Amino acid sequence: MGINWFQEIPDQRNTIMQNTPELNSQGKYLGTITKDFIKVYSVLKEASYQIRKRNFSKYPIFPVSKEDLQIGQHIVGKQQKEFLEWNYGISYAEEFLQKELILVDKYEEFKKSYKDPEEFCCLFVIDQDFVNFVYIPYPVDEEGNEVL
C-alpha cells in the first residue's frame, strides 16, 4: 500500500479557519513558497496550460521541495536559479494516482476539491515536517491582468 497523503488533507473551503498546528505550519510554508512563486509563476502557469491543452491531464500538480524531487519532472530550481529556495517539478493527478499518492477511492474527492487551474496553482509541498497540497492564486491586478 502506498502513502496516503490525500486522506490527511481536509477540504477547508467551507470550514471556519481555526488556529490549528496544520494551519500554522501551512502559513509558515506559504510565506517562503510565495517568495519563490512570484519569481516562477509564469513558467508554472504556462506548464499548466500546456498539460491541459495537450490533454495530458485536467489536473496539473507541481511538486515543490527544497531537496531533489522524487516525483514528476524537474522544471526549475536552486541549481538553475540561485535566487530560488525551492525546486519545482511538474506532474499531474494521474501520476499521483499511479504512485498511490492519491488513493483510487479518494480520486473523485480530489477532483471535486481541485481549484480552477486558470486561477490557482496546485503545489504539492514536500518538506521534512510538512507534506500537503497547497493552492496559490496566480498574481493578478484588480482588472484581472497578470502581475509581472
What would your notes on this structure say?
The protein has three helices and five strands, in the order αβββααββ. It is an alpha+beta fold and 148 residues long. Strands 2-3-1-4-5 form a five-stranded mixed β-sheet. The radius of gyration is 15 Å and the shape is globular. The termini are far apart.
**Outline type:** globular
Strand order of the largest sheet: 2-3-1-4-5
Helix/strand order, N-terminal first = HEEEHHEE
Gyration radius (Cα, Å) is 15 Å
What value does the average pLDDT take? 79
- The residue ranges in which pLDDT falls below 50 over 5 or more consecutive positions are 1-23
Q: What's the count of strands?
A: 5
Report how far the terminal alpha carbons are from each other. Answer: 43 Å
Beta-strand fraction estimate? 15-25%
Write a concise synopsis of the structure shown.
The protein is of the alpha+beta class and about 150 residues long. It is about 30% helix and about 20% strand. The radius of gyration is 15 Å and the shape is globular.
